[in-house]
Amino acid sequence: MNTQRIGAIFEKDLKEFRKNMMLLMMPVIPIFLAIMYSRMGEGELPVFLLYLIVGATYSAVTTSGMMTMMAEENEKKTLRGLIQSPASLADILIGKSLVVGLFTFISLVISLAILGNDEFLAFQPIVGLILLFLFFLLLGIGIGLFTKSVANTSAYIMPVMFLFGFTPMIEFLNLGEDSIAIKIADYFPIMQMIDMHETNSWTAIGIVAIWVIAAAIFTFICLKKVSTDN
Amino acid sequence: MENAIQVSGLRKTFGQQVAIEDVSFNVKKGEIFGLLGPSGSGKTTTIKILTGELKQTTGDVHVLDTDASSFDSTQFKSKIGILSDNSSLYERLTVYDNLKLFCKLYDAPLERIDVILEEVNLKNDRNKVVSKLSKGMKQRILLAKALVHQPELVFLDEPTSALDPGNVIHIHRGLQKLNEAGTTIFLTTHDMEEATKLCDRVAFLDNGKIQELGNPDELRFKYSTHDFHIETTMNEKLVLENDSKNADQIRDLIAAGKVKSIQSDKPTLGDVFLQLTGKELV
Ligand SMILES: Nc1ncnc2c1ncn2[C@@H]1O[C@H](COP(=O)(O)OP(=O)(O)OP(=O)(O)O)[C@@H](O)[C@H]1O
Ligand SMILES: [Mg+2]
């Protein structure tokens, strides 16, 4: 790892992000949702609605942003130039993650500020949000390594969005309390975060951390597979 | 060590398909070495192996005293420059921003950007967005990218294939200057004239093997019939063997003022390749 090279990748990707309409639209989505919600409700919004915003930000900006950037490097054959250079794959991925992290942060802070909710201004939820960010980021990196074209990214982002980003929507499927799907969904990261706000329990954070570890293993396997692919 | 590249018994297979069967050669430090061969003969595959993008199936490969197993080290990567067969640039960024990225990745001073842009004749285009440039201009930026960190050894896969004749001459001059300054150049090409003009030595690659290797002029001489081709003032065409028994006849023709032109047989590299493999190079 080398900070100068990470900095070079960061600077390059930041410039590219700002000139890519598709990427630039993504951080706007959660902000737009937040404006809509803030017009709808009277008083405090339910926590699960706040987490729809969080899920939208992380899946649309973090995961999808990372995937799109990687897919473009693959599709345009520019990744090869980076790999031939002294930059390591870690330098490349960290530089990109910082760009995605920056836009995620901006988008999330603005959205939550619009909703004017201070539920998140405490140590425990912030730790949770950081873990959740890592989870979505690692998913983006892992899938991104294999995404050969930008056109393919939407096929991969949909399942991530609906499974992990919008998990609370499962309530609207009317599956009934005892449904096995709902029981499983309860262990998904965003559901655990919602739980945490009710119980203040660190167990929820622990479960989210396990998801992060699982995502890290997934990313690691993808990395290994890509680097031995000839 | 005086060799920049040492390859012995190199073999590369893709599944059942044999791309390189058995290749051995050395490239000396400071020389321009050309790898010539028809499409699909394994030129790009060889470059990819020499730069660590592909692993050889078997064989010994050393580049700049580094074994192929260490080609992914930062130190090795900083010493070589690569122009790949279909590498590309960041289309949304300017020429300058593209080169700035690679300057920083290779830890080269940013002042190099203007120097190298001058060399590829693109100084006035430094602030243009890459997507707005022609194919030939992009190729020259890619060449600038490969050279921006002043590597000891550069690999150029068909460096002039997309360029018009004017630019080709310009690039050739640049490469010769670079070589005079001490850079070793390994290039592949289909272009016989380019190889003859630029290369100190060339290797002919065909059927996964090197069929011939040597100095272009020496090869042309080696495969020459050495015959004299004479055209007389009567538009007669004579082919006479380069032998003392023909000396009188040639002398008489010249003495009688009957010779319009006289040439000795000197095949082009393309002719030599055709003679060796039965294939055209293009
Ligand atoms: N990744 C790969 N997988 C399978 N076969 C490959 C791969 N890369 C190259 N080959 C095969 O190896 C052979 C040599 O290809 P290579 O690209 O090295 O040729 P080349 O001499 O560079 O040709 P050209 O002049 O057209 O660029 C070809 O038969 C090609 O089909
Ligand atoms: Mg090739």
TrEMBL record, chain A:
Protein name in the entry: ABC transporter permease
Domain of life: Bacteria
Keyword Protein transport annotated: no
Ranges annotated as spanning the membrane: 21-37, 49-71, 92-115, 121-146, 153-170, 201-223
Membrane topology, record value: Multi-pass membrane protein
One family name in Pfam for this protein: ABC2_membrane_3
Stored InterPro entries: ABC2_TM (IPR013525)
Domain ABC-2 type transporter transmembrane per the UniProt entry, residue ranges: 53-221
Gene Ontology CC terms, in alphabetical order: membrane
GO molecular function terms noted in the UniProt entry: ABC-type transporter activity
Chief localisation class: membrane
Localization in the cell: Membrane
Alphabetic keyword roster: Membrane, Transmembrane, Transmembrane helix
Automatic annotation (TrEMBL), chain B:
Places the protein is found: Cell membrane
InterPro entries per UniProt: AAA+_ATPase, ABC_transporter-like_ATP-bd, ABC_transporter-like_CS, ABC_transporter_ATP-binding, P-loop_NTPase
PROSITE patterns: ABC_TRANSPORTER_1, ABC_TRANSPORTER_2
Keyword Translocase found: yes
Cross-referenced SMART domains: AAA
GO molecular function: ATP binding; ATP hydrolysis activity
Organism domain of life: Bacteria
UniProt KW Nucleotide-binding keyword: yes
Sorted UniProt keywords: ATP-binding, Cell membrane, Membrane, Nucleotide-binding, Translocase, Transport
Pfam families: ABC_tran
Main localisation: membrane
Recorded coiled-coil stretches: none
Ranges of residues in domain ABC transporter: 5-232
One cellular component (GO) term of this entry: plasma membrane
PANTHER family assigned: ABC TRANSPORTER ATP-BINDING PROTEIN (PTHR42711), ABC TRANSPORTER, ATP-BINDING PROTEIN (PTHR42711:SF13)
Listed name of the protein: ABC transporter ATP-binding protein
